[in-house]
Amino acid sequence: MCIMCVEIFRERMTVTEARTALRELVATTENEEELEHYQELSKATDEELLELAKDSQPSS
Ligand SMILES: [Zn+2]
Questions:
Q1: Pairing with 47, which of 5, 8, 29, 37 sits 20 to 30 Å away (CA)?
Q2: How many domains does the chain fold into?
Q3: How many angstroms separate the alpha carbon of residue 57 from the centre of ligand 1?
Q4: % the chain with pLDDT above 90
């Protein structure tokens, strides 16, 4: 779970806003695992993006 997924999931951020933020994160993140995750998110369609955000929430 990352900050982006939480924001998207809680609808505090629109998909459009998330995409803008993701471009910045991909450009600035140095952690490879995070980078991969952000790239996965930025490649996803709007629907996939929401699914990924949902999937990454704790299931409790
Ligand atoms: Zn995430």
A1: 29
A2: 1
A3: 9
A4: 82
Axis-axis angle for helices 15-28, 32-43 (nearest 10): 150
Ligand 1 centroid–CA 49 distance in Å is 9
* Residue 42: both structure tokens together: 């930025």
- Closest among 7, 30, 27 to 17, alpha carbons compared: 7
Tokens 């999937």 -> residue = 55
Report how far ligand 1's centroid is from the alpha carbon of 16 (Å): 15
pLDDT band at 3 (very low <50, low <70, confident <90, very high): confident
3 CA → ligand 1 middle, Å: 6
Give the structural domain span for 20.
15-53
Q: Give the pLDDT of residue 59.
A: 64
**What is the predicted pLDDT for the residue at 28?**
96
